[in-house]
Amino acid sequence: MKSLVVFISMLLLLCFQCIYGLGSGESGTGVVPSPDRSPDGADLRSSVGTMVGTHFAMFHQGNTDKCAIVMNLSAVDRCAFVKTTQDCSMEDSFINYLKMTFCLLPPDLTPLTITLCIIWLLFLFIVLGLTASKFFCPNLSAISSTLRLTHNVAGVTFLALGNGAPDVFSATVAFSRPHTAGLAIGALFGAGIFVTTVVAGAVSLVKPFTVASRPFLRDVIFYMAAVFWTVVILYRGTISLGETLGYLGLYVVYVITVITSAYIYSHQKHSATRSSIQSSTHVPEFQSSESDDEAILISNSSIQEDYDSEYCPLLPYCESTSSILLSSLNPVDSRIWRRKSWRWRAIKILKMPLEVLLLLTVPVVDPDKEDRNWRRPLNCLHLITAPLVCVLTFRSGEYGMYRIEDQFPVWALTLLFGLFLSAIVFLTTTNNHPPPYHSLFSLLGFVVSAIWISAAALEVVSILHMLGVVFSLSNNLLGLTLLAWGNSIGDSFSDVTIARQGYPQMAISACFGGIIFNMLIGVGIGCLMQMFNNEPVVTFPHDWTGITLFPPTPQFEPAGLLTWVLAGSLGLSLVLSFILVPLRCFHMGRSHGIFLLLFYTVFLLVALLTEFGFIHT
């Protein structure tokens, strides 16, 4: 479903681009004649210099990315241009998609290369969703269970990170680069508008309900503060270290507020229950209702036990080590396979190679199972593969390929260390009982799955940057459409399903809690990464008594009209929710849901008209 949405949105953007190009008489991909360029393209450097000076004003809304003018060159000159232009180098990703687009195949086959990149983009969205749902979130849940965190603390910390992992990592990666920060702004603001209008409106249409007043107002106020802070930073075009840490500090304040309010509510509820019990004269009736609940729970548990016992062997059976390894690497459950449709089976077959790869490299601890998902041969194999994935994937393998004293590579040292550690664990454990330190595997799984998600998010941002250059689309538009929809559509269907099952308040809480986390953590961590990835600023005092080093201040591209359309629409939707929902006594009915859906439709239309120049200053 996520891939289908991204594919349809890509087609819509291409249609708008074609209509705009034909209507204005500028294709955006034509050749701009230059007197300095000879017919054979020998004087490319002089023509490029002329292009940069002549077409600097044509950059999208103040875009300072010099790579954006590559489509103004002839098809035969584009490959040399992306090879010699610093802004076209994608050093942080594994693949330079601009070089692949213009240099891999002849110029006549460039559309084929772009099509392959779009298919690869759809696959990367599947990687993000699958890694987050089946590996990242379960390990976070295991960590919170091991630390014995309350549901409130786990919900606004570990589980919020698990649910918003694709959004947070995509925003962090985009913010860490000056030329792709617009993607992060578009994705965060676009996802915020999408969730607060489309998802909230769909929940209201599916299951009209009365929202909890205090949590709703709390979440809206905190989110409005985060959006206002971001708008101020975009207006100034720069952010300091203190303001960056302020994002993280504001989220800490939000977590403390959630925990405190939950404690106060729980205390008041217990006090009210105690007083009602003391004043009530029908104590046996209260006890009978409680016993009924217990009877229901006992009956449900007995049904589950009967269901599980159906598949339990009559005689004790001890699996061999090889059979445990093979069954652990099988991503298909035969009982589920028989009940599913042929479409589900076809999609499952396509995803099986990816699932097997993730099963080979990411350990998963399940505290709900009796053996906590302990698979001795596979977990020992994880001690070899997981560290290798970390060193070969982090920063595009930069640290893994580093040679110690120019002789011994780091990945080989990591392999030897993993083999040694795996041998120790294999010789000191058994197949049937997990070791006392099995909980540490959840931490290892958390780290490895986070690195997988980060690597996939890095490639997604690089592909979107390439598509923006090729189709002359701004980073903001790509962020608010493809990146925002691709990261949010899965959670959106989950929230609507939860509402249809009778839990609309839980769905609304998940909507606002996730986007607050994504905004504050995504911007905060991303700006910190941009600061410390660059060279520090050296200041010399007047008396020359000491030298002070400061982290460089991140500079953002000048905000264009589309950015302010984004910010204004998000702020307006929050203000309307803050006013209209209390006026309706916190009841979210179908009329309110229709209003929210219409609001998003109007916003998307205005954003597209702004992007393609029909609305301008």
TrEMBL record:
Q: Name one GO molecular function term.
A: calcium:sodium antiporter activity
Q: Name it.
A: Mitochondrial sodium/calcium exchanger protein-like isoform X1
Membrane-spanning parts = 109-132, 153-175, 181-204, 216-235, 247-265, 378-396, 408-428, 440-458, 464-485, 506-532, 561-581, 593-615
Gene3D superfamilies, A to Z? NCX, central ion-binding region
Q: Which membrane topology term applies here?
A: Multi-pass membrane protein
Q: Give the signal peptide as a residue range, or say none if absent.
A: 1-21
Alphabetized UniProt keyword annotations? Antiport, Calcium, Calcium transport, Ion transport, Membrane, Signal, Transmembrane, Transmembrane helix, Transport
Enumerate the Gene Ontology biological process terms. Answer: calcium export from the mitochondrion; intracellular calcium ion homeostasis
Domain of life of the source: Eukaryota
Instruction: Indicate where this protein resides in the cell.
Output: Membrane
The family database entries (InterPro entries) matched by this protein are listed as: CaCA_antiporter, NaCa_Exmemb, NCX_ion-bd_dom_sf
Instruction: Tell me what gene encodes this.
Output: LOC120063303
Q: Which organism is it from?
A: Salvelinus namaycush
| GO CC entries | membrane
